[in-house]
Amino acid sequence: MNYFTDAIISATELLLQFDPEIYLVVWTSLKIALIATVAAALIAIPIGTSIAINQFIGKRLFLQCLNTLMALPTVMIGLIFFGLLSRRGILGDFGLLYTESAVIIGEASLILPIIINMTVVAVQSADSRLLATLKSLGATQAQLIMPLLKELRYVILAAVITGFGRAIGEVGAAMMLGGNIHGTTRTMTTAIALETSKGDFELGLALGLVLLIIAFTVNFILQQLNPKNR
Questions:
Q1: To 10 degrees, what angle do helices 20-53 and 100-124 make?
Q2: What does residue 103 show for φ and ψ, rounded to 5 degrees?
């Protein structure tokens, strides 16, 4: 117990000393997760809204596949894109493997089905009179999307924040696609795994504390976005 207590004290001291190594890793993690989340949201929100307001053959099967992708192991995402981005892969000529771009692609792909699915659920649970009224006024599909997004902005934002929380805690794909390179692709989760395996438990714990603070902040924002808490 004394060992763990001493480790927590040492980890806290590292954070309060603003150790540059720690905050470089934190900054890298935040930057990669934010870019991945924005990229995924820009793709997922229009797709999710379009799926929700349209009926098409195979929609139920598509939604089942989407739910399956939400439960896809992160190492599977890493394995797929490792094969695509490696030198012998289809995208190997771009030289993206073991770069920030590769980690962003992996994390964005990981959270894409999450945001799409949450957007579909949000639009389907919206007041049915809104969609019926807009259609009766002759609104086109493009004109339907903006009022829906405005009405559901807090729910949609919650979906995006959930995606960010998933991205910031990602380790499997980040390790496989980024290579855990210091100063470029080393994120908090991959650094925790590395430092702990090297025996530097205090540094790993310090990064874990930062990750917990970020997770708490994300959940706090989600609670504030809940209409019942407003």
A1: 40
A2: -65, -40
Which residue, among 215, 170, 198, has the nearest Cα to 28 in the 3D structure? 170
Question: pLDDT tens digits, residue range 93-126?
Answer: 898 999 999 999 999 999 999 999 999 988 888 7
Q: Is residue 210 part of a domain?
A: yes
Q: Whole-model pTM? A: 0.88
Count of domains for the chain: 1
First-to-last C-alpha distance (Å) of the chain: 42
| Cβ-contact 156, 119 below 8 angstroms | yes
Rounded Cα distance, 10 and 159, in Å: 36
| Residues 92, 69: Cα–Cα separation, whole Å | 24
Domain with 46 in it: 17-229
Whichever domain contains 187, its CATH number is: 1.10.3720.10
